[in-house]
Structure prediction request, 221 residues.
Amino acid sequence: MGLNEMTERVGVEFLHEWLLEFARVVKANKDLLTSLDAAVGDADHGINMDRGMTAVLANQEANPPGDPAGLLKQTGVTLVSSVGGASGPLYGTFFLRMATAAAEHADGLDAAAFAQALRAGIGGVVQRGKAEPGDKTMYDALAPAAQALEDALAAGAPLTDALQQAAKAADQGRDGTTGMRARKGRASYLGERSVGHQDPGATSAALLIASAAASATKIIH
Ligand code: ADP
Ligand code: MG
Prediction:
């Protein structure tokens, strides 16, 4: 195994850093997420995500899992059980599906396995929420991110660079939701009046991918 492969492994250390960073940026953007949700929903997305990620970190500290699948599963279970609203079950399912994909990689995931796990997580979001591209949901940030990650890895980029590309694509996807008419979740009740507002869930999803990129830069050298 080459040095690059050795150092590109996504293990518990990376996942811990990712969740720590996501919790940090969710807290820093709590008011933004809630005000975006005030425009198209019920003004609780920042509160929901902050409560969920605070619980995730608390559980992680009280009962630190020893392998990637365990950490991802604990995260998913915590989000499902601590967050009311659509985003809890959706993000929870995302991490639970990532956990299932990570189960056979107790020593860490290489870049390809991590991309597959991300895909599996997004597949869970779709299965649970039935979102399609353009419905103005978190899926509109997550799907382009997964695509960009896969494309960059296929072109030979190291995982850290590929995650930077994914974060860029997630930001663009998030920005794209502003012009969309919501067809899922509370925002869909607004119909045409949802157009012109950035989707809160796509905004938190872009933070999730940006956090992965930031953690990779820190952990995977
Ligand atoms: P709630 O809508 O129950 O108050 P939140 O405010 O926490 O929950 O989350 C709202 C976000 O959840 C939306 O901005 C959207 O991105 C996402 N969302 C809602 N329904 C779906 C769905 N069916 N599929 C994917 N994402 C969804
Ligand atoms: Mg809401």
